[in-house]
């Protein structure tokens, strides 16, 4: 219920005079709807929004306790406050109602001032709970945004060691997002890949500068050192319950694996390579080929695609690569927007 809404109160009682009495108490402040039996009440709450229920206990066929059980068992209605209104005055019945999840218990005959105060109290509690939930949601979103921004900047920090602007990680993450969606993953999973992929080369922090910035081909022993960066990256990210960090670790560890098993560090092959690793293997290589690096000039897009086509089934997942090629117009737009 929003602050500007007039709350809707459902009155459930099999005696029309009781409905008239409660409606007369409430109608000046609230919108009142009614039901004369339990089944009618359960059907009504499925059809329209109800903010609070005043529920009689003693009704034929389905008593108020059974109605309350159904309401609390349904995810769509379990949070609606239920106030029992009954002539039953013994402690046992009141305790039973509260155990079933009722918010309160009123005894007939009801004094109008008490009814209004109890209804107002529980509606205000709803407002307070919603405000608290919104605050928690906002703070959680802020914390998540901060975490994501830190990951992006860590990724760019690694790229600054062999890339003048660090824009490589931004382009890779955005192209990865497009390819993930094209591959059929959900929007939320694609967002996870978008935010985790900037750490794909975080392990380069552990590679000596003389190797990372060497202006020419690496010697075999230098290449062996370079090939340790996926494991270094996995160690830097570590084991963490965060789904985002778990994905970042998978990407860092597997984005240099190859479809035919000739990659590193674990020589995984085919679909044994996690989908995230297979996607970033394509997006990372394309952007690396078409970017200037200390050891090479930037390739043209056509030259990069021609080379990558020759590696389909060797380095790259054939299906993913075909999806990637179809995205080239969008990818070129990303490259222009986030150029070095």
Q: Can you walk me through this structure?
A:
This protein folds into two domains: 8-134, Response regulator (Rossmann fold), CATH 3.40.50.2300; 160-337, Hypothetical protein af1432 (Orthogonal Bundle), CATH 1.10.3210. It has a five-stranded parallel sheet with strand order 2-1-3-4-5, with helices on both faces. With 340 residues, the protein is of the alpha/beta class. Helix content is 56%, strand content 7%. The model has no long low-confidence stretch (mean pLDDT 88). It has helices spanning 16-26, 38-47, 64-73, 91-99, 112-159, 168-182, 187-196, 209-212, 220-226, 229-237, 243-254, 275-289, 301-310, 318-326, 328-337, and strands at 8-12, 31-35, 52-56, 82-86, 104-107.
Draw up the topology in text:
Layout: E1 8-12, H1 16-26, E2 31-35, H2 38-47, E3 52-56, H3 64-73, E4 82-86, H4 91-99, E5 104-107, H5 112-159, H6 168-182, H7 187-196, H8 209-212, H9 220-226, H10 229-237, H11 243-254, H12 275-289, H13 301-310, H14 318-326, H15 328-337
Parallel strand pairs: 1-2, 1-3, 3-4, 4-5
Helix pairs in contact: 2-3, 6-7, 6-12, 6-15, 7-11, 10-11, 11-12, 12-13
